[in-house]
Write a structure and sequence with these properties.
CATH topology of the largest domain: Serine Threonine Protein Phosphatase 5, Tetratricopeptide repeat
Radius of gyration: 25 Å
Distance between the termini: 50 Å
CATH architecture of the largest domain: Alpha Horseshoe
Number of helices: 23
Number of strands: 5
Helix content: 55-70%
Number of domains: 3
CATH class of the largest domain: Mainly Alpha
Oligomer: single chain
Largest sheet: 5 strands, mixed
Order of helices and strands: HHHHHHHEHEEEEHHHHHHHHHHHHHHH
Structural class: alpha/beta
Strand order of the largest sheet: 2-1-3-4-5
Length: 511
Amino acid sequence: MIAGQDVSTVTSPLPRGVRRALDAMRANIGHAWRLTELAATAGVSGRTLQRQFLTFVGKTPRTVLREIGLECARRDLLQGTPGVKIMDVALRCGFPHFGRFSIAYRRRYGETPSQTLKRQEILTDALGATPSLYVPARDRPAVAFGPIEAAAENLAVAADIADDLVTALTRAGIAVATRSVAARYHLGGAIRGSGAQMHLTIRLIDTETGGQLWAHRADGVLRDDTTTTEHLAARIAAALQPCLRLAEIDRALRKPATGLGAQDLALRAMPGVLSLDAIGNARALELLERAMDQEPNHPLATALAAWAHVQRVVYHFTHAPQQERARSLELAHRARGLGADATVLAILGNALSLLNAFDTADLVTRKALAMDGGSAWAWSRGGWIDVYKGDPQSAIERFKIALDLAPHDPLAFNSMVGIGCALFIAGQYAEGAQWQERALAEHPSASWVHRTLCPAYVLAGQAPQASRSLGALRQHYPDLTVSEVQRGMPPLPPSQCELVVGALQEAGLPA
């Protein structure tokens, strides 16, 4: 049985009748399917189809149909197409009753459809406001991109999307080449289908290995409309970046250990910095010191090192916090004077905010978003700055934008932690604990999360969970005391720090 599996990914092993029914549901999402219709399409009796769904999918056909409709609505709302109306989305996805749709949507995704759409409007405005800023060409990966394949009647739309995509990629700091021989990667696109089934597919190919690295599909947004094509191109460029960054890291890791340049060493170090754990941090700093020995003013290596050193303070990786903080501050000041792209600026914003330089961190993060409105890292760091300033509502919006842009990014879990901390500040302790638990499920080695998870459980009145969380914290930090937590705690508002400290004391952490 495949109970609990996302219906959009259920493919096999399934009986032929179930596969036919699922295909029919997906092809006609807005249709009010009856069991008898589905059974006729599947070529089996209604009772047989019902039994097969329960056995192999773990759900009734009616439940699966509703989930497919919700997934369709979620995709449509996350695309944030200008002018979209929630009622139209609901009807298109098979929900004629708006109130019931809103309830089902919130139950599944933890927010209302209007909240999802509002967040996408904020992102759309940011993407549309991105100016044509100069982005340093240094170490930028080159992507070859040619015409988008399309039938004759769609060639004009395909050309518009291609032009807008080149602009969006360039704004995002990606060098676009016209010939594959000059590029590490090839980006290809095609418009397929017709009418309501027409869709755009974009694929990223590694020119060295020929392997497909990434794919993106956009449904129902292909219109001869300038605003729509610009918006679509900006979203594709934003979605591409995390994959391209991981591909560059993988490329650096595949190179022989001898003769690595500063950029290769910095890329090799990045996963360790992003891990936010002690072992990864230590390995990363070794690589970053080698990179800076080669090029003392290498922007990426310098910014990563600044962040890595202050991590050692905040996450209790060191017994010399003052020295680590001083080194981080020195590197952060150096990095500010170097030419940088949006990624480097977002990393620098991480370091500066943890160093309590909120105004400078905010300035740097805003500059990153001005360069690239689709930078998930910059949106996430903006969320943390809002947390530190005591603005939980704005923080949650920013964190969720980051998660929408890059749900599988290595730092996505940190946005979940951020949402948990924002909810803590808002006094929603139980919900905040749930988000931090989600973060730990994504990244179990981030045991420092228990510093705020345990207090959330204490303040929510959930003593057993608080005790379990404190036990996990002390297992990984056996000598940790309340005083050390205070010294290393991220710069939360003073009143919230007092709540955290008091709750940890109540839970039993030694003073």
